[in-house]
TrEMBL record:
One of its GO terms (molecular function) is kinase activity. SUPFAM superfamilies: Ribokinase-like (SSF53613). GO terms for biological process: phosphate-containing compound metabolic process. Keywords: Kinase, Transferase. Pfam families: PfkB (PF00294). InterPro entries: Carboh/pur_kinase_PfkB_CS (IPR002173), PfkB_dom (IPR011611), Ribo/fructo_kinase (IPR002139), Ribokinase-like (IPR029056). This is Carbohydrate kinase family protein. PROSITE patterns: PFKB_KINASES_1 (PS00583). Residues 10-288 form the Carbohydrate kinase PfkB domain. The keyword Zinc does not apply. Belongs to the carbohydrate kinase PfkB family. It comes from the Archaea.
Amino acid sequence: MEPKTPRHIAVGNLNIDVYMVVDYIPGPDENSVAREAYIGPGGAAANYSVAVARLGHKVSLLSHTGKLAEQLGVLKLLQERGVDTSLVRIHDNEMPGIVIVLVAPGGERTMITMRGANNRLRGDEVQGVTVDVLHVASRGTDVLQRVISSIRAGLVSYDPGGAAARREASRILDIARNAVDVLVLNRVEYKLVVGDKPFAEAQSLLNGRLKYIIVKMGAEGATLISRDGLWHVEAFRAGQVVDTTGAGDVFIAVFNSYLVEKGDHITALQAASIAAGIKVTRRGAQSAPSREEIERFLREKPPRVHKHV
């Protein structure tokens, strides 16, 4: 019997990303002329969805957007990339989320975000659905709680993003312990949510449902805090860094997908590092690699994973 194809639901933002490629990121009262510009779909949940679809998993995006996104072909492009957009709510009189991304040589970026119709997201738009993986991205704990009350999932991951981490630091960990398997943070968000506790001591936080805390560290790789130890994966180098936008979304998409398939968090960590390392060599937030690319590097050049004792 063929194994069942895992199904994901990604909950969060769907944006129109407008990229400006500049020689340097301007400061106050400075002007930087763009050498190139391009437009594409973005938003953490949408980026996650495309990365999952590239692995051959089924994925539905739960989000809100404006009519302009549909007119610009954003939804059609997501569909062409394998994402089910039937759960996306389209509002005639709302602007879609729009993000202006300034990308400098070396992949450094600055982003200006307008949430628009994304603010309509509640999290309880879908009721009584069961999936293999549920991922909530860049949303507050109110949305997270409504989602987990409405959708049943074998694996739940939550990447609150910087705004929610700053606004709700004290609540995120408490809710995650009861409702989330994988909590995803960058280093700044880790300090906000967990405090000054060293990674090794953070293992004591893994109780209730919470099994993993992932700390994304950019060019330094990522750390996985798990019940069986503290693991660090090196950043995978696939070539010149062009654009880091969406790399974290690709990382967690691949980690979740391999974890639910293989049940092995070390392999999942390596695959995620490879996927993010390939993604940053390509422009755009949704340039996730294929399964074949990831598998080739897993066989030939897997990134090193160190266990901290």
